[in-house]
Amino acid sequence: MIIYVIYRNPLDAPGLFVLRRWMIRPGSRLPEKNPVLVSCCLEEVRAAVPPGHFCHPRSPMDEPQVVEQWIPKQYEATFKQAMGH
Questions:
Q1: Which domain holds residue 11?
Q2: I want to staple 85 with a disulfide (CB 3.0 to 4.6 A). Which of 16, 55, 67, 80 is the partner?
Q3: What is the number of structural domains in the chain?
């Protein structure tokens, strides 16, 4: 599964928002080397998330730079059930 994570003020882009694509597989979570987009505007970064994803807000377990995660809609019910929603 591929998810997208939006970061604010990460070490490699201070003061900016960064959209990263992650490959999630059983037992591993790997970010792609290059970001999808780097911008000073959160809305511009959100607009770069491909259609067909739902937004999951930052959780207390996330790194402090994480703003939100975008997960494929086909996994929405399963994800929300696992998160207790």
A1: 2-82
A2: 80
A3: 1
Read off the tokens for 71: 């997960």
Helix, strand or coil, per DSSP, at residue 1: coil
24 pairs with which residues across the strands?
A: 29
Average the pLDDT over 42-67 and give the result.
Answer: 95
**By three-state DSSP, how is residue 15 classified?**
coil
The whole model's pTM is what? 0.90
**How many angstroms separate the CA atoms of 46 and 24, rounded?**
20
In the DSSP assignment, the letter for residue 46 is: H
Give the integer Cα–Cα distance in Å for 48 and 45: 5
The token duo for 63 is 């790194």
Residue type, 37: L
